[in-house]
Specification:
The complex is a heterodimer of chains A (494) and B (675). Chain A has 494 residues and is mainly alpha-helical. Chain A has 23 helices and two strands. Chain A has helices at 6-23, 30-53, 87-103, 112-131, 135-144, 146-156, 161-189, 196-200, 206-223, 232-239, 242-267, 269-274, 276-295, 300-319, 324-355, 366-369, 371-384, 391-406, 408-432, 440-443, 450-468, 471-475, 478-489; strands spanning 63-71, 76-82. The radius of gyration of chain A is 21 Å and the shape is globular. By secondary structure, chain B is mainly alpha-helical. Chain B has helices at residues 3-23, 30-56, 84-107, 114-133, 137-155, 162-193, 198-204, 223-238, 247-250, 256-265, 270-277, 279-282, 286-308, 313-333, 337-364, 382-396, 402-416, 422-448, 490-516, 533-539, 544-550, 555-573, 576-584, 586-593, 598-648, 653-672; strands at 61-71, 74-82, 212-216, 219-222. A two-stranded antiparallel sheet of chain B has the order 1-2. Chain B has a two-stranded antiparallel ribbon with strand order 3-4. In chain B, a hairpin with a 2-residue loop joins strand 3 (212-216) and strand 4 (219-222). In chain B, helix 2 runs antiparallel to helix 3 and helix 3 runs antiparallel to helix 19 (490-516). The longest helix of chain B is centred in the last third of the chain and has 51 residues, at 598-648. The N and C termini of chain B lie far apart (106 Å). Classes of the chains: A mainly alpha (494), B mainly alpha (675). The interface between A and B is large, with 60 and 54 residues.
Chain lengths: 494, 675
Amino acid sequence: MSTYPLLSLAIWLPIAAGIIVLLTGSDRNAPLARMLALVGAIASFLVTIPLWAGFDVAYGGMQFVEMGSWIPRFNVNYHLGVDGISMLFVILNAFVTVIVVAAGWEVITQKVAQYNAAFLIMSGLMNGIFASLDGVLFYVFFEASLIPMYLIIGVWGGPNRVYAAFKFFLYTLFGSLLFLLALLYLFIHSGGSFSILDWHQLPLELSPQIWLFLAFLIAFAVKVPMWPVHTWLPDAHVEAPTGGSIVLAAIALKLGAYGFLRFSLPIAPDAAHELASLMIALSLIAVVYIGFVALVQADMKKLVAYSSIAHMGFVTLGFFMFSALGVEGALVQMISHGFVSGAMFFCIGVMYDRVHSRQIADYGGVVNTMPKFAALFMLFSMANAGLPATSGFVGEFMVILGAVQFNFWVAFAAATSLILGAAYSLWMYKRVVFGDVANDHVAKLSDINKREFAILGVLALCTLWMGLYPQPFTEVMHASVNELLNHVHISKIQ
Amino acid sequence: MNMQKLYLLVPLAPLFGAIIAGLFCRVIPRWLAHTVTIAGVAVAFVASLLIFQDVQAGNTFNGPVYTWMTSGDYTFEVGFLIDTLTTTMMLVVTFVSLMVHIYTIGYMQDDPGYNRFFSYISLFTFSMLMLVMANNFMQLFFGWEAVGLVSYLLIGFWYTRPTAIFANMKAFLVNRVGDFGFLLGIGLVLAHFGSLDYATVFANAPEFAATTINIWGEQQWSLMTVTCICLFIGAMGKSAQVPLHVWLPDSMEGPTPISALIHAATMVTAGIFMVARMSPLFELSTTALSFVIVIGAITALFMGFLGIIQNDIKRVVAYSTLSQLGYMTVALGASAYSVAIFHLMTHAFFKALLFLAAGSVIIGMHHDQDIRNMGGLRKYMPITWITSLIGSLALIGTPLTAGFYSKDSIIEAVKFSTIPGAGFAYYAVLAGVFVTAFYSFRMYFLVFHGKERFGQADHHEHHGDHDDEEVAHDHHHGLAPGQKPHETPWVVTLPLVLLAIPSLIIGYIGIEPMLAGDFFKGVIHVDAAAHPALAQFLDEFHGPLAMALHAVKTPPLYLALAGVALSWFFYLKRLDIPAAIQRRFSAIYTLLDNKYYFDKINDFVFAGGARLLGKGLWRGGDVAVIDGLIVNGSARLVGWFATVIRRVQTGYVYHYAFTMIIGVFVLMTLWINRA
């Protein structure tokens, strides 16, 4: 194992890069800002690679641990570490940042330095969330990461951006206040520790567990988002610039799901079992209800946003069946969704940059003018529909198989996404891409350029790799997921 | 060469061709695209032949290629199971695919998507091979969905046609309904057997024969029945059994070569193959087999009726495919799995032949597909004529042809079957013989014999209900007045001849080893005590020649003859009679013309219902209740509260002073009353 503070690098390198980019100032230096941002993002991505390369798959505990005192008076520590659950998300996050910087290359012309800096800083902060093992540190990163996203939507967003940004901010802030109370309760109850790992071992009666679980639930359910606290997401996506949508879908949604695994399940395992049926019911509503809602959307971004919610329904469903297949399937689904939804939003961005519309009705016959784009878009639409050999299949497959063991009818409801997912993805694809050229805008479209091709090509390779050979991804999860599940099966009530 | 490398070569050679032709479809010349894909499939075919011989010598194989994923206690692998069932399918797939590849050179020569088309059909060949070579359920599902994807891409190959892009989405979604059941079936297998490996599951299957599971309330269901029905729902989607058959007729929107390869010979038979592969499971549930036989019988008979009234040459063949798939399914339900596979094989040859011949006619007719505009084509297209005749004779089960042996075996096996539903199925398949002969020769006579109706200025209203928009499209123009049809080039006719040969002889050669012999021993499992139909049929089997002679004493031959005679009378002698019947029984005609209203019901109930539900949930749930009432409602509540509070902050000192005094009074009162 490396002795370098890899996790600190993963957090602070992008933040430092972001500050440097910010120093380039006005748009006169835009080319420099872009170049610096790209270099910073790539460097930040490269430093995360050793996390995977040097990862000990047999060990289920925390690795690459860093520990330092931060606020000794309250026993708050700068405590970092990753296990098989969080490690891949750090890498995914750093990877997506590179994509995002490249995605905004020619598109963002206003406040270029600030735009790129916001993404770099947010990337660092979100790595902080995935790596924090101290409650306060986690909370600080968790809240701080809201600010760049708020700015990205509010400054570079669409016409209704202020409403969307506020909705996003207030929704998530509302959730996190109860989370803070829960952290304070745990601090006091554990006799003055903010260590998340200590809290995992903390014996608790059922009723405080339920309260803690509910507090966590509100915080994380908003982030995921779970039905019925999901309505901020379509608005945020619609108004956010392409890069914002990519990060939002690929990484930000994963924070809530990650919170369930890091906080809810291990700290309140009995409550998790107690409330599992509620969680499963909410997840299935997300899959079925949202699947139908996605079907009738006229705005492509809204459609993909709703499909994100449905896919995240699989994630929460997988968690609360308490089986290895379910939890690992959910984690795979999270990573895959990072690639696929990121790519879907990028595809929509590609069309939006040319036509300045996200309405399905404004398109038709795009394949005639953008054949290369159409082929790649087809791949991602199919991945979104969960076609085998794409990453979108793996997680759904695992969760549905896990669900059959759990309860046949749960699996039955979840498996409807096979039909619904195909229906909304392919129906949109048909209306947008197939057919005769629908109007002058479509007739004047130019096919994707080298930059766009490179971005979509890389994402396509990731999608196929994970679909054809998911073993490297699941392999690193096994030990940690088993440890988590063993832990969750032991009651904390004494 | 190492056999395992050879196994790998079979799917990878077509994949290589597909990748080259696909990724570089805009750069490479046409000859390179078709050479590399044809070479790939040819290599696969030759390798399949070698493997076939090796398996005949007793060298079966079952092993992994790589570990796809592990999770919990489960290992998911990609691997091959090479036995006689696999090699039979491999040969059928690679041979028909090779023929279709060659044929495509002629059929698609004017199409701008030439290279893309070759890429797709090679990709299809790869997917189908992975499906049949799988040694586990997961890989089966992979191949299953992959062939569905390629079918989707190919039905929508002419992506500017509204009908084509509707048909391909419909095909994908209907198949997904089947896959939905299929995946649940796979889930049940994994949940109870703890493995998705065929060998493990089949070996342990008998232990679960009596297992029951709690599905609904207190009622206990046999695990095997539920699992098999779920798996069979998958087969119903892929093999187009009623009521999931609706996509197959529409799939004719795709170019004809793929109608032959995918929608007749190979992909649609994947469901039949799957059930035969799962015979150790299906044998444990008579209920599931009953379900299978009834669905198959309904498909065999009622889809045949629809073939009678079609005027689009491809749609006639499509409905005949549906009907024949029903025959195979009936055989499965009667536990005559080997007969189903036998019919699958013979059908692959003669139906691919009929489709390719239909395509040849379409080329000759300059892309007019309406059989009412044809007639007398035998003069102009002799090779197509003779091969079509051979295909039609095989299809209706003329003694000694391939179709005779497989179809009569099905009818005989069903006759002996005792499971519930077999009686109905027997009469359905028997009646189906007449219907098949009638519509097949209706088409044959209308196309190749009688008056020459082509090249007339007054074209019939363009064929079919969907096709009106396409008249402008250059794939549908038909012959100009005075123009004559012409025989197609050798790349088109060679595959016809090469397919006509097995259509004639493969039954005679194959029936003895495949049904009576040990060919499928240890591969297909039949519980002879519980389902003795096949064994009883084979007791009476005394070689192919005897069977052909025996046919003179059985009803199918006379039913087929009657069908041919009737269509000869109706469509060559007295063309006024069919028209009169159509007028006289207009209610039945309308029912058939609307394909029993399946499409309309699906459109209205499922597609319309889903959109309505989606709109309702969105407008009612998300927009009105959650956002309107709760989110924006609480924002408004805060706003209202703030407005009230703001009123208080007037800025006048005397207001504040007054409030303060009141406050002081209240506090003092409380303080005084404390005691």
